[in-house]
């Protein structure tokens, strides 16, 4: 099985450790992992802002760059969701979209494809799980609180394999944290207010860390927590799963 | 970059306590709705059915409207066809004038808000009295609804009580108990019902097969409106049709559970004939709906049944209030309906969304209001309404992300940004991120660099 | 606008057509439909009289439920002024007939209306009441409403209910009523008794 590693732009620049952890974890499970160097971004930031046409070239390159892998794995639910859900619609009428059927968030990949029963990580801390919107509502990483479906949570399933960990979920377990890409700079007042509330609910669980599959949400909350000196840390879920590697 | 919504929202959020109350109030409605959804094993099936029935009905609308109007006319009901708001208002006025009516009671109708009927009728000397408690309150305060189901939700009991005192509706000074105030309004409205020469209702569902106009209320005000005056006028948007009782059952079950988290409204009334000695008129209104039908990207917004569930779950609405939006219907569906009404006028609201998509999941007829907002954003540039800064940023990203070599170089120098002092990044207009956030720190080395250096192992 | 032009525009603007869903919804069925109906009626703010003897007098039941009421309104056969007075002629009571009052306004001031429901719905406490009287106002204008319902006519859900309901050809009106009139328009505080009945009593009978 050939796996193409996709490290989205902001993970690349701000949180390379999440990319490194993903790589190490995949290697740990004996996979053939490659990192195509000409990758940059999935195109979501421009498209969500209303400039899907400006992401067209990136989308075309992405689809071409990753076409020969069996799976494309990314430590970012939102980016994976964008490729999976939006690429086929955008490329419709141009050519068949290859990448949308292959892309997976790392959580999804470990849970559904590798079906891992052990993880190397040891993490003796209480964590609060951040069920990010696109992870929940586009990738089905957990059952959406709005829907009448059997409850499940793939992030928690995986974290339960980690030695020493205590897992919490905040009240309003999948309410948006207020990031929303350019929303955070266009509507700073509401965005910040949402972030503050979300952080408080995470803190109220007694957790030391907030963890989730999306560094973008974590970045937003970390920025607010730092500015307001709120006592909690943020870590990508893959770093917990790979802790010790 | 600052939209009207963002400015108004900032003012709203500045009152932290009121924001908390507003948010908690609507979150509790959302929780009640969730509980209702959980109690029915067939919930998700109901939603899918509702969506399919609406898709079918809307794409066979002319046929069903004929069936509906034939059925009504067979029982002596007069059916009118209004192409737009002006025709609708004129039709209603002429019905009222031909009966010499000077006072009309009415139950809540978003269609009459849409057509701005009340001010029109008032200009022509008709005293229009809203009879839904919330609508009556805001009417007396000369305000607009801040929510389509709970129109006076932005007001505190003291504000209502003081106004009732001024108008002589409440006699006990300083008594702001909601039960007391509601009972004062009951007496006040009882007189209105008895004096009015006509009653108008909206229509939650029109049943094509039987001609039933179905009106759902909790207060029973639509029924009082139609039981006392001899003249009943129904204002109905043409998208409200369903084929038959079988379909109606699906929608009746979804509507109130989604709207307020109750298993049903207290009253679900079926009108299809004038009451003895009276007259019944149904005014069918297009007002842009046929154009929506032709819009291949957004026609499914016509499936909306105005339950307000998307508004209640919207994290942005809950923290910015109904008056932050420039269209009279707020929240996710309001953003969509505003764009369908006049995209140049109401484009301001499309950025008031994080694309969290919670609204897509609560919508009982699967309109997908959140997903549709994404689509609307793509049309802003064509409309000449794209934000310049966002466009510049997106163009910058397009340039950068399309050139891996430059991208990699940029990454190399990015950590330098960490040395920009915080005070420089806190200037609101230049860097909105700095308003609420500390700047994120660029990694000393990007993943790209680490990879190139062979450090990813 | 002319109906033809109105409909023609719709026809022209319809680009594709969808079918109705193939399968029917399977609505919820309760283990004890009757008990669920009673529970829901109470949840929505109604009262239930459930222990009615076969030979019980409806007048007496109504009087017992509303001992302070003076003005009644009904066109049900079983309701009579004599019956309501219970043989005590000195009691000052009034019984109005919705079929013979001149105007709906004349029903204002009614304390209790007694009407017949035809279908009860377990999932939400709705009771279908077809109009069988000249002035339907009594259903809404009375301070309190008594609905008589045969317990055999309780169904699980609205799908079953819509299969069964009918209207009187003279009036062509019917309404589902679930508990008393209510509102939460002031600060979301629930208040019973907005514009219509402030209380609803459901009398479940065998006949």
UniProtKB/TrEMBL annotation, chain A:
<dbReference type="InterPro" id="IPR004017">
    <property type="entry name" value="Cys_rich_dom"/>
</dbReference>
<feature type="domain" description="Cysteine-rich">
    <location>
        <begin position="127"/>
        <end position="221"/>
    </location>
</feature>
<dbReference type="GO" id="GO:0016491">
    <property type="term" value="F:oxidoreductase activity"/>
</dbReference>
<dbReference type="GO" id="GO:0005829">
    <property type="term" value="C:cytosol"/>
</dbReference>
<dbReference type="Pfam" id="PF02754">
    <property type="entry name" value="CCG"/>
</dbReference>
<feature type="domain" description="Cysteine-rich">
    <location>
        <begin position="3"/>
        <end position="81"/>
    </location>
</feature>
<protein>
    <submittedName>
        <fullName>Fe-S oxidoreductase</fullName>
    </submittedName>
</protein>
């Amino acid at each position: 099985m050939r796996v193409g590693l996709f490290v989205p732009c902001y993970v690349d620049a701000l949180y390379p450790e999440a990319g490194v952890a993903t790589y190490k974890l995949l290697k740990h499970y004996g996979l053939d992992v490659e990192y195509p160097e000409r990758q940059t971004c999935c195109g979501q930031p421009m498209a969500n802002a209303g400039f899907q046409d400006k992401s067209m070239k990136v989308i075309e390159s992405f689809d071409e760059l990753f076409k020969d892998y069996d799976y494309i794995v990314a430590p970012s639910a939102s980016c994976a969701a964008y490729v999976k859900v939006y690429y086929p619609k955008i490329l419709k009428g141009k050519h068949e979209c290859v990448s949308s059927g292959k892309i997976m968030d790392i959580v999804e990949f470990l849970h559904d494809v590798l079906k891992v029963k052990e993880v190397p990580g040891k993490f003796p801390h209480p964590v609060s799980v951040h069920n990010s919107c696109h992870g929940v509502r586009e990738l089905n990483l957990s059952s959406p609180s709005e829907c009448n479906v059997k409850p499940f949570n793939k992030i928690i399933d995986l974290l339960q394999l980690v030695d020493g960990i205590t897992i919490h979920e905040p009240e309003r377990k999948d309410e948006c944290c207020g990031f929303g890409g350019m929303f955070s700079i266009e509507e700073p007042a509401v965005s910040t207010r949402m972030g503050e509330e979300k952080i408080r609910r995470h803190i109220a669980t007694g957790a030391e860390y907030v963890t989730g599959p999306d560094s973008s949400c974590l970045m937003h909350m970390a920025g607010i927590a730092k500015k307001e000196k709120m006592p909690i840390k943020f870590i990508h879920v893959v770093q917990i799963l790979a802790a010790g590697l | 970059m600052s939209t009207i919504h963002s400015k108004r929202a900032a003012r709203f959020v500045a009152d932290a306590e009121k924001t908390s109350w507003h948010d908690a109030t609507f979150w509790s409605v959302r929780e009640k709705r969730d509980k209702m959804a959980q109690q029915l094993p067939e919930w998700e099936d109901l939603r899918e059915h509702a969506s399919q029935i609406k898709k079918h009905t809307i794409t066979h609308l002319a046929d069903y409207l004929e069936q509906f109007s034939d059925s009504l006319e067979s029982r002596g009901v007069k059916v009118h066809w209004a192409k737009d708001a002006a025709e609708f208002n004129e039709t209603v006025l002429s019905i009222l004038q031909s009966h010499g009516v000077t006072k009309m009671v009415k139950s809540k109708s978003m269609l009459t808000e849409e057509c701005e009927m009340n001010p029109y009728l008032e200009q022509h000397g008709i005293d229009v009295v809203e009879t839904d408690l919330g609508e009556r309150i805001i009417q007396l305060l000369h305000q607009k609804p801040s929510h389509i189901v709970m129109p006076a939700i932005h007001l505190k009991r003291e504000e209502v009580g003081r106004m009732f005192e001024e108008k002589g509706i409440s006699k006990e000074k300083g008594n702001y108990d909601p039960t007391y105030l509601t009972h004062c309004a009951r007496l006040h409205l009882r007189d209105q019902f008895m004096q009015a020469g006509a009653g108008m209702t909206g229509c939650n569902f029109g049943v094509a097969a039987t001609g039933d106009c179905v009106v759902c209320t909790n207060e029973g005000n639509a029924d009082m409106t139609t039981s006392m005056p001899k003249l009943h006028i129904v204002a109905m948007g043409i998208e409200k049709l369903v084929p038959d009782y079988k379909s109606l059952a699906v929608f009746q079950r979804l509507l109130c559970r989604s709207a307020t988290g109750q298993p049903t409204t207290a009253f679900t009334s079926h009108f299809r004939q004038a009451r003895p000695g009276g007259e019944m008129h149904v005014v069918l209104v297009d007002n842009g709906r046929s154009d929506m039908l032709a819009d291949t990207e957004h026609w499914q917004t016509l499936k909306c049944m105005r339950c307000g569930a998307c508004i209640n779950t919207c994290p942005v609405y809950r923290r910015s209030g109904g008056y932050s939006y420039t269209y009279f219907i707020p929240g996710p569906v309001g953003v969509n309906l505003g764009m369908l009404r006049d995209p140049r006028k109401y484009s301001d609201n499309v950025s008031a969304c994080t694309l969290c998509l919670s609204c897509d999941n609560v919508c009982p007829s699967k309109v997908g209001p959140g997903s549709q907002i994404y689509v609307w954003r793509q049309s802003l540039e064509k409309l000449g309404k794209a934000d310049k800064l966002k466009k510049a940023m997106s163009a910058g990203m397009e340039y950068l992300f399309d050139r891996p070599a430059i991208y990699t170089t940029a990454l190399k120098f990015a950590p330098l940004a960490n040395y920009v002092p915080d005070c420089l990044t806190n200037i609101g207009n230049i860097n909105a991120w700095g308003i609420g956030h500390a700047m994120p720190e660029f990694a000393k080395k990007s993943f790209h660099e680490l990879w190139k250096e062979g450090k990813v192992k | 606008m002319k109906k033809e032009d109105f409909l023609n525009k719709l026809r022209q603007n319809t680009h594709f057509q969808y079918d109705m869903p193939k399968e029917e919804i399977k609505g919820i069925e309760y283990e004890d439909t009757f008990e669920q109906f009673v529970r829901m009626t109470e949840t929505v703010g109604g009262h239930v009289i459930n222990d009615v003897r076969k030979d019980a007098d409806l007048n007496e039941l109504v009087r017992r439920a509303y001992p302070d009421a003076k003005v009644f309104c009904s066109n049900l056969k079983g309701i009579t002024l004599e019956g309501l007075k219970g043989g005590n002629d000195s009691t000052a009571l009034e019984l109005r007939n919705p079929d013979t009052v001149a105007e709906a306004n004349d029903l204002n001031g009614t304390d209790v209306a007694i009407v017949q429901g035809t279908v009860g719905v377990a999932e939400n406490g709705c009771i279908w009441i077809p109009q069988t009287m000249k002035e339907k106002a009594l259903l809404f204008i009375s301070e309190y409403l008594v609905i008589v319902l045969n317990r055999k006519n309780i169904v699980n859900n609205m799908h079953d209910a819509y299969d069964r309901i009918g209207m009187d050809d003279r009036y062509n009106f019917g309404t589902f009523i679930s508990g008393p009139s209510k509102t939460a328009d002031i600060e979301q505080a629930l208040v019973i008794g907005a514009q219509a009945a402030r209380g609803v009593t459901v009398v479940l009978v065998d006949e």
